[in-house]
Structures are given as structure tokens and as C-alpha cells.
Specification:
Blueprint (H helix, E strand, L loop, with lengths): L12 E7 L2 E7 L5 H12 L8 E5 L3 E4 L28 E4 L11 E4 L6 H6 L11 H10 L17 E7 L1 H8 L15 E8 L2
Antiparallel strand pairs: 1-2, 1-8, 2-7, 3-4, 4-6, 5-6, 5-7
Length: 203
């Protein structure tokens, strides 16, 4: 699973989000999450995300966007199934589907921004989540990189988010977005806009 942090290979397609806070570049894991990646790429190619905002922002957790206010619809016009792959987890920088439960994925996505994780955190969480099922490698990667381990299906079977990408450039931008002032609904007081989203070839 350490490959999640590898840079894209030359010739690989990546997603680029140009936001009002800067640029975020995302590696896509098409082999592991073909539906989620196909949906994300098609939404980008259709210009759907252009002008939308990150409407939910929680510092030390994640930033969420991808809804035009008319409901989170996939490129197929209906919800699509979750793709759970233990090789991809909710480490900091992971890009994942935002949904209302298993198999309810649409256009919304979120980028994990934190928090930092310690072994004590994982031990303490064992009364609520199945952290005892985590391998030593998984625990060490969370301690090294941080992230939202409670969103992984094998740790919390009530959730079914699909990790389909990883930020490899622009985490400073993600951090800047996560640190803005928000209201009680976690909506930024000043809009954080996805000015354009494109699919590009990594060189």
C-alpha cells in the first residue's frame, strides 16, 4: 500500500484542480477504483467542477467539494457502487468519494487533510473502531503520514468511501483551504472556488 505515495509515472493521466487558494495535483488509481476514477475524470472533462466550491471544510480532517447544489449525481445520472480496496486507505492526501453510505457515490469528493496519528490514538480507538485488525504496516503508515483511519471500511464497517486518488503536489494548498474560517455547518465564510479542473498527462 506504500505505492499510494509514489509519484505518477511518465505518461500517466492526473487530475489538476486550480483553486482560488492554489493548485492541487492528484494521482488517480484507475486499476483499483475504476468506477470512481471514470466518474471523476468524466465530470472534469465535462467541466462540471469548474466554479464549484469546497463547501465543507474541517481543519485536521478533510476538505469536501463537488456538488452544484442540485444533488450529488454521478456522470451516469445515478449513484454507483463503492469500491473498497484495502491497498488504498485514508492517509493524509487521499482523495475519496463523499457519500451517504455504501453504494451512494455521486459527484462529491473529499481530500483527507489529517489529523496526525499516534500509536496511543490507535490503541484508544480500539473500543470504538476495529483498529486491532490493522496491520503493523498500516499503523506505521498512519503514524508517519496521518489521516482518517476511521474512514477505512476494515476499521469501520459502517462506512464505504472509495479512495481513488492521492495528492502528490499541493498539500500546502489543501492545508490553506482547511485552515479558513467556517460557520457552524463547516462551510467557509469566504468561498473557496475550484476555478478549473483538468485532466493532464504527467511528464
Amino acid at each position: 500500500m506504500g505505492f499510494q505515495f509514489d509519484l505518477p509515472q511518465s505518461g500517466e493521466e492526473i487530475a489538476v484542480l486550480n483553486t482560488s487558494k492554489g493548485t492541487i495535483k492528484i494521482r488517480l488509481f484507475e486499476e483499483s477504483a475504476p468506477l470512481a476514477v471514470a466518474n471523476f475524470k468524466a465530470q472534469i472533462s465535462n467541466g462540471y467542477y469548474n466554479g464549484l466550491t469546497f463547501h465543507r471544510v474541517i481543519n485536521d480532517f478533510m476538505i469536501q467539494g463537488g456538488d452544484d447544489g442540485k444533488g450529488s449525481k454521478s456522470v451516469w445520472g445515478k449513484a454507483y457502487q463503492s469500491e473498497i480496496n484495502r491497498n488504498l486507505q485514508h492517509f493524509t492526501g487521499a482523495v475519496s468519494t463523499a457519500n451517504a453510505g455504501p453504494d451512494t457515490n455521486g459527484s462529491q469528493f473529499f481530500i483527507v487533510q489529517g489529523p496526525q496519528v499516534t500509536m496511543d490514538d490507535l490503541d484508544a480507538a480500539s473500543s470504538t473502531y476495529n483498529t486491532a485488525d490493522m496491520t503493523e504496516t498500516e499503523k506505521q503508515l498512519y503514524i508517519e503520514h496521518g489521516g482518517a483511519y476511521w474512514l477505512d471500511n476494515h476499521v469501520n464497517s459502517s462506512v464505504a468511501h472509495t479512495v481513488f486518488g492521492q495528492v502528490f503536489e499541493g498539500m500546502d494548498v489543501v492545508n490553506a483551504i482547511a485552515s479558513v474560517l467556517t460557520n457552524r455547518s463547516d462551510k467557509p465564510l469566504d468561498d473557496i472556488v475550484i476555478e478549473s479542473a483538468t485532466i493532464e498527462v504527467y511528464q
